[in-house]
């Protein structure tokens, strides 16, 4: 994938400051892996390696040549739309399904691939299901104890109660899952998945069944538990904000392929493709022309930082890369519509050479009349080859 | 493959071999059968038996189609006083096995029985000779009797289909100007074709399986001939040859049923539409509808069951309980109970086979498990003879030399009977268990695997407890079917062991009808259990586990 970004020469840090709200971490950064937390719970987080894994169902490829690595203690989010193969990837790691090609290693042990297919029950991998999959015929306590058969009855009970207390549900130990609220069921599922001390925890859209308010809180709590234990985890989600908040790195998937795997900031600042650019935030797309180290767009020109062959290119802009400049400078635009939204004003601006009006945010009193002048700010401008594909 | 999985595969292979044994042994027996008998069979026995069986099948097929579809339409398309009662009551004849209904009617219609006596009294006649009714002991009589107890097989799926699918479609037909008759013939009937085909197929399987009714009524069907050739002529190869002809008939039936169902899916599986807006009937029309709908209930259940109750009561007053009845009931319960236990255990493993062995081999095993149900009881029994004898010989060779004593599992022991029952009714428990498993969200067993349990442990810890109600209802259905079973019991029971059904058969064969009334009544009462279960399933609340995991 090409990764050519336009930068204004001599500029400072071009990442917009402050970051868009959803890109800001709301929780503390992870403790160094394998130290404090791990020592506390006795977990030894594993390293996970996925090498060139493919899986097809009949003729339909669900996963094609995916390679990923998860260092011990890291939390990785696999982000993609439904049907992009992210759940298949999870099932392959879990051992509920087997890859057609490639291999999966946990630490230095090959668990799948090249003739080996270790059953899920011996992999030491935990999985939290989207529907939680609590056993309806067992109490909450019995659910959490389910994976603790290697312990004595008394020890298993103690550990299960401890896990339940950790998620704040010790008082629901004797309830049946049918009587729990969505948030409670999710926390029981977490406690149950963590009880046997899995070396890698997989989470399959574990928050998507919760209503918006509960989701925020449960997500933060879940993350705290994972961080505390220093657990290697993979979260599958279709929600970019969730991936950003939850994970150290994000693996972006599309149609069975890995598009880019990076930190949220890198994905935001240096997307590898228009698809990746769209994944973590709004972008404005337009045609541009590269010529002699300069980029010309309907919104103005700027210098290209990376060598780019002359010719037509696809330009992706973050909204913050578009500035409102004093009249007379920049490119003129016509305001089609304005909406008052409190601290700022949203304006729709029509610019010659663009297919659709731009949607911009301006100071409430900064704009008068129908006309406005626009220019390109530093950073947030990505240049890709003008291919037909996105 | 781990050793445990290898063991599982081996067990599955053994089970499949056992399930296939009757068919294989029939083919072998027929192939090396003594040539001298075949010409005799082919010339004198088979043509007549095939003709009578064919006519019987055609007659019963037409009658159950008319009765089953007609009654299903009646209770689905019209509203009249008594409709709800009829809706349920139309299932009652399911409780009466074919040999019991024949038994009851033979006594009822006897020249000295209550009906003819009553008619004579009414007409002022004194001698049985002066009143001649057509003899029930004939092919038409047999068709009539079988039709009136077997039509619920058509009624049940057809009514379900009308209930689920018909609402909107039938209203659409009416909005397009079609009257009730036109709606029935142009829309409802074609719509219900797959359901009707399914029901008729089952009814005809039962007809083929029947040995009692046909024999009591003097119809020499293939089934009767298999039985006679074996028991009366002691000619096993001959019986096997006729049985093989029957098996071909079954295959033909199944093919015909598939053909009749056509490519149109059996549309009863979807969600339930709005209930059909029923056309209200009043006045004489309502009375006629009720009378029409009640006739099959009366003839297929009310009359025979009522008569049996009355006759049993008479017998009881006159001489107390027949002393053998307790022993026969005990035998029935013991053998049916043992066979049910085996059937349920094996059924559980077979239903779990796709999970334990892998999808493809598992599905194959499930299909093989359905084989016994398709085979008429006599055919299965004949097919089991040789394998059982072989087994006995093997055991004798194995143990006899060492111990001077060998465990006998084969012929003439209760074990043989239990094995035969299991083969015949395995599919009932497999089906029920599969249905129970299918209702469990697939993430639950996955979750158990992720928590460290193997496939088998998952089966025991998660699937079995959750599917328990379904397994139990399967067990109940299997128990009732086994308790009512006649042909296999007749042929394979240990010497001097009488169950309720064989006792009834014996009394009928001797012509001492009144002595069997109590046994027949018990069988009918047992048969009512699955009918009640069906009604509860039909009316019952939404299953509890639909919220599982949420």
TrEMBL record, chain B:
GO terms for cellular component: plasma membrane. Residues 50-255, 329-534 form the ABC transmembrane type-1 domain. The chain crosses the membrane at residues 53-76, 88-106, 138-156, 184-205, 238-256, 288-313, 333-353, 365-391, 403-423, 456-480, 517-537. Keywords: Cell inner membrane, Cell membrane, Membrane, Transmembrane, Transmembrane helix, Transport. One of its GO terms (biological process) is transmembrane transport. The keyword Mitochondrion does not apply. Belongs to the binding-protein-dependent transport system permease family. This is Iron(III) transport system permease protein.
């Amino acid at each position: 994938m090409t990764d050519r970004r336009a930068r204004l020469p001599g500029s400072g840090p071009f990442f917009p400051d402050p970051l868009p709200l959803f890109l800001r971490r709301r929780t503390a950064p992870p403790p160094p892996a394998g130290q404090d937390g791990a020592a506390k719970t006795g977990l030894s987080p594993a390293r996970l390696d996925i090498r060139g894994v493919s899986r097809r169902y009949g003729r339909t490829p669900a996963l094609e040549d995916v390679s990923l690595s998860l260092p011990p203690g890291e939390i990785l989010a696999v982000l993609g739309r439904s049907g992009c193969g992210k759940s298949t990837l999870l099932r392959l790691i879990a051992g509920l399904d087997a890859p057609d090609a490639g291999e999966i290693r946990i630490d230095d042990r090959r668990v799948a691939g090249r003739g080996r297919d270790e059953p899920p029950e011996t992999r030491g991998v935990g999985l939290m299901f989207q529907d939680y999959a609590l056993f309806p015929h067992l109490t909450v306590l019995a659910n959490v104890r389910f994976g603790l058969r290697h312990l004595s009855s008394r020890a298993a009970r103690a550990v299960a109660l401890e896990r339940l207390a950790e998620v704040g549900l010790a008082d629901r130990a004797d309830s049946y899952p049918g009587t729990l609220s969505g948030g409670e069921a999710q926390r029981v599922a977490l406690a149950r998945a963590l009880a046997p001390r899995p070396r890698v925890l997989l989470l399959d859209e574990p928050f998507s069944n919760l209503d918006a308010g509960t989701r925020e809180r449960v997500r933060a709590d879940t993350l705290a538990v994972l961080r505390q234990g220093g657990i290697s985890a993979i979260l599958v989600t279709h929600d970019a904000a969730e991936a950003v908040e939850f994970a150290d790195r994000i693996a972006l998937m599309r149609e069975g392929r890995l598009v880019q795997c990076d930190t949220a900031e890198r994905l935001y600042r240096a997307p590898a493709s228009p698809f990746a650019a769209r994944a973590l935030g709004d972008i404005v797309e337009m045609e541009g022309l590269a010529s002699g180290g300069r980029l010309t767009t309907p919104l103005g020109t700027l210098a290209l930082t990376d060598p780019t062959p002359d010719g037509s290119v696809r330009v992706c802009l973050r909204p913050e890369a578009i500035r409102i400049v004093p009249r007379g400078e920049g490119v003129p635009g016509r305001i089609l519509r304005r909406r008052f939204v409190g601290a700022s004003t949203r304006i729709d601006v029509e610019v010659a050479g663009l297919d659709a009006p731009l949607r911009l945010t301006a100071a409430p009193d900064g704009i008068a009349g129908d006309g406005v002048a626009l220019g390109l700010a530093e950073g947030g401008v990505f240049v890709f080859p003008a291919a037909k594909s996105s | 493959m781990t050793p445990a999985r290898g063991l599982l595969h081996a067990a599955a292979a053994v089970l499949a071999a056992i399930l296939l044994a009757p068919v294989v042994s029939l083919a072998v027996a027929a192939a090396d059968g003594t040539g001298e008998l075949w010409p005799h069979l082919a010339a004198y026995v088979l043509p007549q038996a095939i003709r009578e069986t064919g006519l019987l099948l055609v007659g019963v097929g037409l009658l159950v189609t008319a009765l089953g579809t007609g009654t299903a339409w009646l209770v689905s398309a019209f509203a009249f006083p008594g409709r709800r009662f009829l809706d349920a009551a139309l299932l009652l004849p399911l409780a009466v096995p074919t040999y019991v209904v024949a038994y009851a009617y033979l006594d009822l219609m006897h020249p000295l029985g209550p009906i003819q006596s009553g008619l004579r009294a009414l007409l002022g006649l004194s001698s049985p000779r002066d009143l001649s009714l057509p003899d029930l002991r004939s092919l038409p009589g047999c068709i009539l009797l079988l039709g009136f107890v077997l039509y619920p097989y058509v009624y049940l799926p057809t009514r379900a289909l009308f209930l689920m699918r018909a609402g909107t479609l039938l209203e659409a037909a009416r909005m397009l100007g079609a009257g009730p008759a036109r709606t029935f013939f142009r829309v409802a009937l074609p719509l219900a074709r797959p359901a009707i085909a399914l029901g008729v197929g089952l009814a005809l399987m039962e007809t083929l399986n029947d040995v009692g009714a046909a024999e009591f009524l003097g119809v020499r069907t293939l089934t009767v001939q298999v039985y006679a050739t074996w028991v009366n002529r002691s000619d096993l190869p001959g019986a096997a040859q006729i049985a093989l002809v029957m098996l071909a008939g079954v295959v033909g039936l199944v093919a015909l049923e598939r053909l009749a169902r056509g490519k149109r899916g059996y549309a009863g599986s979807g969600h339930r539409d709005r209930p059909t807006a029923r056309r209200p009937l009043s006045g004489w029309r309502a009375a006629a509808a009720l009378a029409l709908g009640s006739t099959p209930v009366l003839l297929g259940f009310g009359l025979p069951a009522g008569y049996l109750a009355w006759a049993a009561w008479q017998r009881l007053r006159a001489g107390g309980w027949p002393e053998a009845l307790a022993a026969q009931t005990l035998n029935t319960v013991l053998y049916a109970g043992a066979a049910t236990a085996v059937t349920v255990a094996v059924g559980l493993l077979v239903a779990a086979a796709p999970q334990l062995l892998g999808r493809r081999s598992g599905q194959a095993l499930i299909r093989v498990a359905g084989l016994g149900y398709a085979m008429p009881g006599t055919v299965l029994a004949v097919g089991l003879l040789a394998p059982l004898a072989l087994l006995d010989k093997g055991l004798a060779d194995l143990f006899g030399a060492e111990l001077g004593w060998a465990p006998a599992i084969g012929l003439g022991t209760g074990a043989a009977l239990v094995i035969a029952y299991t083969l015949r009714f395995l599919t009932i428990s497999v089906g029920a268990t599969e249905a129970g498993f299918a209702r469990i969200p697939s993430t639950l067993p996955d979750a158990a695997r992720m928590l460290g349990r193997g496939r088998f442990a998952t089966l025991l810890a998660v699937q079995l407890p959750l599917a328990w109600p379904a397994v139990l209802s399967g067990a109940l259905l299997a128990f009732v079917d086994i308790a009512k079973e006649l042909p296999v019991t007749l042929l394979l029971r240990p010497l001097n062991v009488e169950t309720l059904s064989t006792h009834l058969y014996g009394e009928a064969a001797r012509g001492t009808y009144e002595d069997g009334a109590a046994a027949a009544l018990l069988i009918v009462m047992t048969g009512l259990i699955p009918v009640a279960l069906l009604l509860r399933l039909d009316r019952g609340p939404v299953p509890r586990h639909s919220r599982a995991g949420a």
